[in-house]
Amino acid sequence: MPPGSRKVAITGVALADCGRVDDTTPYALHAQAARRALADAGLDRSLVDGLASAGTGTLAPAEIAEYLGLRPTWVDSTSVGGSTWEVMAAHAADAIAAGHANAVLLVYGSTARADIKAGRRTGTLSFGARGPLQFEVPYGHTLIAKYAMAARRHMIEHGTTIEQLASVAVQARANAALNPEAMFRDPITVDDVLAGPMIADPFTKLHCCIRSDGGAAVLLVAEEYVRDCRTAPVWVLGTGEYVSHVSMSEWPDFTVSPAAVSGRLAFERAGVRPEEVELAEIYDAFTYMTLVTLEDLGFCAKGEGGSFVEKGRLLVEGGDLPVNTDGGGLSAQHPGMRGLFLLVEAVRQLRGEAGARQVRRRDGSAPGLAVASGTGGWFCSSGTVVLGR
């Protein structure tokens, strides 16, 4: 085939053990997720010639490749926070299409929760104090404070209410109640969210993602491998990536996320419109991220995110646009850089394998078009992937 002409499919997805996993290592979670994803696809690891990983060790992905017994001829260690995995998926798809790789494994594992519990690390208040961050960190401008400032700006400019933001957490929990693998499944109300302890104004505890352990893996392959797989392919239709800023002073508009660019590129390259998408998996370290990303992906106009989310549209059961169908980072799992989990859930939904939380069309069939959009840093970067059956 001419370079760049090969179609790319996701044929294997899996989660490692997630939630409370006290007696293991990040490397073991990488291996567990990788084995399960390869088994899901029905392919042998000897066929994997590409590996993408970030967030573990000094020489990622070299250390992960060694641990997994792989000798890849294509690697990616791009690290842009939570959007890492959507950006890596874009790079992998381009490499496969160009003939530089045939089967690329994206894999992640983290014991973020267990490490804090055991005293091996502390909570991440910032990403360090060197470079541009030296002008913010000394003044107490923590990671969560950056998101809180952005949320407050949206509230001031567009009249978004704290109740509307809280409804994002409520709907995420309702979706998680349908997911036996979710870490938190008990129902919550808007009043529950508002009554929680204040973390960073306007965010109370339930506006913020949970901290868990866990891992995930996704296998992308060239189209000629699909016939050898045990699963139906989910095709990568279009991708986009964008880096916005690091310093808050360099962010032109706190109410516009980088998904406004990555999403536009992904939809244009896929040749589809946002209104055709049947479900969305969106990075949700905080409730505001879901709301503003929905706006910037084009599911509603700028400033209308509050009214869009408050009407139950995000629910698996009865929602117009089911969002974070597994419960998201707010309720299901969030072991650090969660972007890979978005791809796993989107693929499971498109294959009709999501169990009680399965999104269905009116005729009972599984959806045919989904989007996964990851965000990194404090809205610093974004990667968006459009997937279809």
Shape: globular
Query: How many runs of DSSP E, i.e. beta strands?
Result: 11
Q: Report the helical percentage.
A: 25-40%
Radius of gyration: 19 Å
**Biggest beta sheet summary:** 9 strands, mixed
- Overall mean pLDDT: 95
Can you write the helix and strand succession as a string?
Answer: EHEHEHEHHHHEEEEHEHHHHEE
Q: Biggest sheet: strands side by side, in what order?
A: 3-2-4-7-1-8-11-10-9
Q: State the separation between the terminal residues, measured CA to CA.
A: 22 Å
Which range does the strand content fall in? 15-25%
Given helix and strand content, the structural type is: alpha/beta
Number of helices: 12
Q: Ranges with pLDDT <50 over ≥5 residues?
A: none
InterPro entries: Thiolase, Thiolase-like, Thiolase_C_2
GO molecular function: acetyl-CoA C-acyltransferase activity
EC number: 2.3.1.16
Domain Thiolase C-terminal: 240-389
Descriptive labels:
two-stranded antiparallel sheet, 32% helix, 389 residues, 9-stranded mixed beta sheet, globular, alpha/beta, 12 helices
Explain this structure to me?
This is 3-ketoacyl-CoA thiolase. Its EC number is 2.3.1.16. Residues 240-389 form the Thiolase C-terminal domain. GO terms for molecular function: acetyl-CoA C-acyltransferase activity. It comes from Streptomyces griseorubiginosus. This protein is an alpha/beta fold and 389 residues long. Helices cover 32% and strands 17% of the residues. It contains 12 helices and 11 strands. The chain has helices spanning 26-41, 62-68, 84-98, 112-117, 143-158, 162-176, 190-195, 259-270, 287-296, 305-309, 328-331, 339-350, and strands spanning 8-15, 50-52, 74-76, 103-110, 198-200, 203-204, 214-222, 234-243, 279-282, 369-376, 381-388. The strands form 2 sheets. Strands 3-2-4-7-1-8-11-10-9 form a 9-stranded mixed sheet, with helices on both faces. A hairpin with a 2-residue loop joins strand 5 and strand 6. The model has no long low-confidence stretch (mean pLDDT 95).
